[in-house]
Protein backbone atom coordinates (compact mmCIF):
# COMPACT_ATOMS: atom_id res chain seq x y z
CA UNK A 1 0.00 0.00 0.00
CA UNK A 2 1.44 3.35 -0.96
CA UNK A 3 1.51 6.21 1.47
CA UNK A 4 -0.30 9.43 0.61
CA UNK A 5 1.82 12.55 1.09
CA UNK A 6 0.10 15.91 0.87
CA UNK A 7 2.04 18.95 -0.28
CA UNK A 8 0.94 22.54 -0.73
CA UNK A 9 -0.87 25.12 1.37
CA UNK A 10 -3.46 22.72 2.81
CA UNK A 11 -1.15 19.75 3.35
CA UNK A 12 -1.31 19.65 7.15
CA UNK A 13 -5.11 19.95 7.22
CA UNK A 14 -5.55 17.24 4.58
CA UNK A 15 -3.13 14.86 6.30
CA UNK A 16 -4.91 15.34 9.62
CA UNK A 17 -8.17 14.34 7.94
CA UNK A 18 -6.74 11.22 6.27
CA UNK A 19 -5.38 8.69 8.77
CA UNK A 20 -2.10 7.09 7.78
CA UNK A 21 -1.08 9.90 5.47
CA UNK A 22 1.73 12.42 5.87
CA UNK A 23 2.47 15.97 4.80
CA UNK A 24 5.55 17.76 3.57
CA UNK A 25 6.10 21.38 4.46
CA UNK A 26 5.97 23.65 7.43
CA UNK A 27 4.30 22.56 10.64
CA UNK A 28 0.85 24.10 11.09
CA UNK A 29 0.60 27.23 13.21
CA UNK A 30 -2.09 29.53 14.56
CA UNK A 31 -5.69 28.85 13.60
CA UNK A 32 -4.67 25.95 11.36
CA UNK A 33 -2.96 24.15 14.25
CA UNK A 34 -5.97 24.85 16.49
CA UNK A 35 -8.41 23.50 13.90
CA UNK A 36 -6.33 20.32 13.62
CA UNK A 37 -6.16 19.94 17.41
CA UNK A 38 -9.97 20.12 17.55
CA UNK A 39 -10.14 16.92 15.51
CA UNK A 40 -8.73 14.98 18.47
CA UNK A 41 -6.83 12.57 16.22
CA UNK A 42 -3.19 11.49 16.37
CA UNK A 43 -0.98 14.07 14.68
CA UNK A 44 -0.20 13.50 11.02
CA UNK A 45 3.36 12.62 10.23
CA UNK A 46 5.48 15.46 8.83
CA UNK A 47 8.10 14.40 6.28
CA UNK A 48 10.84 16.33 4.50
CA UNK A 49 9.70 15.13 1.08
CA UNK A 50 7.83 12.38 -0.65
CA UNK A 51 9.79 9.28 -1.65
CA UNK A 52 9.50 6.88 -4.56
CA UNK A 53 6.26 4.95 -4.21
CA UNK A 54 4.37 7.69 -2.38
CA UNK A 55 1.12 8.95 -3.83
CA UNK A 56 1.63 12.74 -3.82
CA UNK A 57 -1.39 15.05 -3.65
CA UNK A 58 -0.72 18.74 -4.31
CA UNK A 59 -3.35 20.67 -2.38
CA UNK A 60 -2.40 23.83 -4.28
CA UNK A 61 -4.30 22.41 -7.26
CA UNK A 62 -7.53 22.46 -5.25
CA UNK A 63 -7.95 26.19 -5.83
CA UNK A 64 -8.91 26.88 -2.21
CA UNK A 65 -8.03 29.98 -0.18
CA UNK A 66 -4.66 29.97 1.57
CA UNK A 67 -5.20 29.08 5.24
CA UNK A 68 -2.44 31.37 6.55
CA UNK A 69 -3.98 34.44 8.11
CA UNK A 70 -7.51 33.05 8.33
CA UNK A 71 -9.39 33.15 11.61
CA UNK A 72 -10.34 29.91 13.35
CA UNK A 73 -13.90 29.91 12.03
CA UNK A 74 -12.67 30.36 8.44
CA UNK A 75 -10.18 27.52 8.89
CA UNK A 76 -12.97 25.30 10.26
CA UNK A 77 -14.99 26.01 7.11
CA UNK A 78 -11.94 25.25 4.97
CA UNK A 79 -11.38 22.04 6.94
CA UNK A 80 -14.96 20.96 6.15
CA UNK A 81 -14.42 21.60 2.43
CA UNK A 82 -11.20 19.57 2.48
CA UNK A 83 -12.91 16.74 4.40
CA UNK A 84 -15.67 16.61 1.78
CA UNK A 85 -13.10 16.60 -1.01
CA UNK A 86 -11.22 13.70 0.58
CA UNK A 87 -14.41 11.74 1.17
CA UNK A 88 -15.61 12.10 -2.42
Ordered list of secondary-structure elements with their pairings:
Layout: E1 4-7, H1 11-17, E2 22-24, H2 30-37, E3 45-47, E4 55-58, H3 72-87
What would you say this structure looks like, in words?
The chain is an alpha/beta fold and 88 residues long. It has one domain. 35% of the residues lie in helices and 16% in strands. A 4-stranded parallel β-sheet has the order 3-2-1-4, with helices on one face. Helix 1 (11-17) packs parallel to helix 2. The longest helix has 16 residues, at 72-87. The chain is globular. The mean pLDDT is 95.
Strand order of the largest sheet: 3-2-1-4
Chain-averaged pLDDT: 95
Major sheet characteristics = 4 strands, parallel
Measured between the Cα atoms of the first and last residue, the distance is 20 Å
Order of helices and strands: EHEHEEH
How much of the sequence is in beta strands? Answer: 15-25%
- Integer-rounded radius of gyration: 12 Å
**Total number of β-strand segments?**
4
Which residues sit in consecutive blocks of at least 5 with pLDDT less than 50? Answer: none
Number of helices: 3
Count of folded domains = 1
Q: Helical residue percent?
A: 25-40%
Shape: globular
Task: Decide which structural class fits the backbone.
Answer: alpha/beta
